[in-house]
Amino acid sequence: MTKKWFRIGIAGVFLMSLALRFWGLERFNTLVFDEVYFAKFGNNYLTHTPFFNAHPPLSQYIIGIGIWLGSHIPFWHDTVNGLTGSLRSPWTYRWFNALTGSFIPVVVAAIAYQLSYRRTFALLAGFFTACDGLFLVESRYALSNIYIVIFGLLGHWFLLLALENQNQRRWFWLVLAGINFGASVGTKWNGLWFLFGAYLLWVTAWIIQGIHSFSNSKLIPSLTMGHRGGSAVLESPHMEHIGYGAEETEGHRGTGAQGKPKLSLLPCPPTPSSPSSQTPLQNLTQLNVFQMLFFLGIIPAFIYSIIWIPHLQLDKTYGFIAVHQQILKFHLHLGGNSTDVHPYCAPWYKWPLMTRPMAYYYQTAGSINEPLPVVGPPLPSGAEKIIYDVHAMGNPFLWWFGVAAMLFLMGMLVLQALIPWVKKEGFSTPATLSVDTWIALYLVINYAANLLPWVKVTRCVFIYHYMCALVFVFLAIAWFVDRCLHSYYQQLRAVGVTITFIIFGALIFWMPVYLGLPLSPEDYRMRMWFRSWI
Questions:
Q1: pTM
Q2: Which residues on adjacent β-strands are paired with residue 232?
Q3: How is 344-358 classified by DSSP, letter by letter?
Q4: Tens digit of pLDDT for each residue in 276-320?
Q5: CB–CB of 144/188 below 8 Å?
Q6: What are phi and psi of 387, to 5 degrees?
Q7: What's the rounded Cα separation, in Å, for the pair 320 and 453?
């Protein structure tokens, strides 16, 4: 793929995201789901109304700024309400979230490109992210979760840019990474897991380097680097090279030994001269502990602290320490993680397969010509003719294929670790891991870092808490499809194309419940495949 078409593709992904998020943005002239908190809180900062905030305040600052800017734009004020505490158009407290959410697919694409320098992988990652329903719904209302995600992703992107550079340029990108990691935590505390993932990856890189150094000693046999067919491979007296197949270098495809294409589970390192043989992750061990603690420790903590200053100036009931004690107390008293506490409570193990999405808005009407319902109970069962439902659910096939791709990457890493033992060669690592191995490590570690901390959480949690881990699922399926599309085998290329079209088709099929479009009861039930989805 040429640079020109890559840029056109990324622009198309952004415009698609923008259109989906802004179309009919003020359709429901009310407060949808947690807008009853976040839109009100954003307006409270504008009216200088003190209040207790159960989360760090950054997202509400941003929503408040959006309300202020939107109120000064001389259009899109056809409908207004006073539900935020002031007379506002729904557009004013939603548009900034819609704009911010439109950039998330672009940032995901930027991370994918920075990981591999493969344009197809980056474009697929952005496109699949734009096809997700949960991110679409969260971006169309005055909610906070998209800010956790975009700041956390920017932190990772800037970290990758820092690893690509040296000296003052590296420091510049590290400072930006620290600022954005701090901003993610300053939105909600679970933004901390993005930073946790960066630390785990750094520790893993040092462990790999230590194992390699140890395995090069005479105590443990080690693999040696050789060349076969012009590409670097791992050799030992007892094993043949295992490769995924052709490696993309922006349109170039290579072959294995004797010019014969190969296909198996593990990635094949590309030629040393190819751009795709490099990844910034290879430079992780260039960061020492003092740099990590300063740039990804002190700076995020400083940013998080100053984020609180405007709120503490507005509400002087609690100081900095006391307000955190009150927030912790609030969350500990939210009750257990069961439907007895809230009908949409969903523990962490229900998130990956999307077994319990949730309705953010649900109203019924007698006909499509009736005024759009915004308040009041739905019509009795059987009386409704039109259903308006905004469902916080993902793109089912994107999620399911993505989980399968993540499991594939996990299996790939496990096999790479076990093969030397099976071959009775001891525990060892190659001098240089392939780019696909680094990508697998990056995605698996960050996915685990953003999901597994929820295992110990006993309060009621919801499917939107999965969003921080979910972006790495999108990257995983994009990686898998990219590798399929660049396979020598026609069947695998067909698999990649089929997965892409199924995901896009699913976006179109479930679009009405993402955008709250009118549906007949039959059409609504057609989209609710499982009872647990309702």
A1: 0.88
A2: 227
A3: T---GGGTTTT---E
A4: 568 999 999 999 999 999 999 999 999 999 999 999 999 999 999
A5: yes
A6: -120, 130
A7: 25
